[in-house]
Automatic annotation (TrEMBL):
Protein's name in the database: Uncharacterized protein
Lineage, top ranks: Bacteria, Pseudomonadati, Pseudomonadota, Gammaproteobacteria, Pseudomonadales
Length: 302
């Protein structure tokens, strides 16, 4: 397990993202009428509560030999009545408008409660300017922050905030070392257009809230006619409970089954890496955000 593994978990949706771009704009569906359009998902709640309370139909596909079931809602981005999705976690409520898909995977070996939710939402019209998309995404980020979601640093990454972004001259790395929690993508920092374009096609912001974790992703597809100015973006959100987040960092089933026993050792390795990178950053004149403390992990409390 390493600090990149949570980022790798949602990476499986990038194939879905690619297929989405191929077909989303081709579908035409009539708008829903006669009732409100919404979906409410509470982390840790039974999947039945979502299915019974939703005004939208979910498909179900199960693979019994894997003990997994996929529950999915999906609509075309062209639909005129896309639902809002409310995500509830502890005492936090987040409302996400104009959602095009919701995917919930239930592992029967764990139970029928919701451990993770992946959401895609409609962004701006195709070939809007990159600056318009930046503004749109950061409005979403403001909504997340105001709903109680906080900036999350990976345990092995240096705590370098966006305030230090001008001292970091390359995306994805700090002083030559790969980091997932890059200061250019601190949710409290809005990169300028030059930084934005240098980052590349994929953007990730990380948050936590009351023992749950969130990965906000954007995929940029530049236009053919004016790639430096305009493009099409797909935006997704991946929510995970504490258990789902940390288990996803282990690749072997035998390790997943013993994640509580293995995690302290992995966190110690991450801590040593963070200390080393922060010492290196201080020597280069980069300040460390000493106010940030890693969120507690309830499963490890004695």
């Amino acid at each position: 397990m390493d600090d990149g593994n949570l980022a790798k978990r949602p990476m499986k949706v990038y194939l879905t993202i690619f297929l989405f771009f191929l077909v989303a704009c081709e579908k035409k569906e009539p708008p829903m009428t006669g009732k409100d359009s919404f979906i409410e998902v509470a982390l840790h709640a039974p999947i039945k509560a979502v299915l019974d309370g939703s005004t939208q139909p979910f498909s179900q596909e199960c693979m019994k030999h894997l003990n997994l079931c996929w529950y999915k809602f999906e609509k075309s981005a062209n639909d005129k009545n896309l639902p809002s999705v409310t995500i509830k976690n502890s005492d936090s409520t987040l409302v996400i408008p104009k959602v095009t898909s919701v995917t919930i995977v239930i592992d029967d070996r764990v139970g029928d409660n919701i451990e993770g939710v992946d959401i895609s939402l409609r962004g701006l019209p195709d070939n809007s300017t990159h600056q318009q998309n930046i503004d749109f995404i950061y409005q979403l980020i403001e909504n997340l922050l105001s709903s109680g979601w906080k900036h999350y640093y990976f345990p092995g990454d240096p705590r370098i905030s966006g305030a230090e972004a001008p001292k970091v001259d390359a995306p994805g790395r700090v002083l030559g070392e790969y980091v997932s929690s890059h200061p250019w993508l601190d949710p409290h920092y809005k990169p300028d257009i030059n930084q934005w374009m240098k980052i590349g096609a994929f953007y990730d912001w990380y948050f936590y809230n009351n023992n749950a974790y969130l990965n906000l992703k954007a995929w940029r597809h530049d236009s053919k006619d004016n790639p430096a100015e305009t493009g099409t973006y797909l935006i997704t959100m991946g929510f995970a409970t504490e258990r789902e987040y940390w288990v996803s960092g282990f690749t072997e089933d035998k390790d997943k089954a013993h994640w509580k026993e293995l995690l302290p050792g992995e966190l110690e390795v991450s801590k040593e890496r963070r200390l080393r990178l922060e010492e290196k950053a201080r020597a280069a004149g980069i300040e460390i955000d000493e106010t940030y403390q890693d969120p507690p992990i309830n499963a490890l409390r004695k």
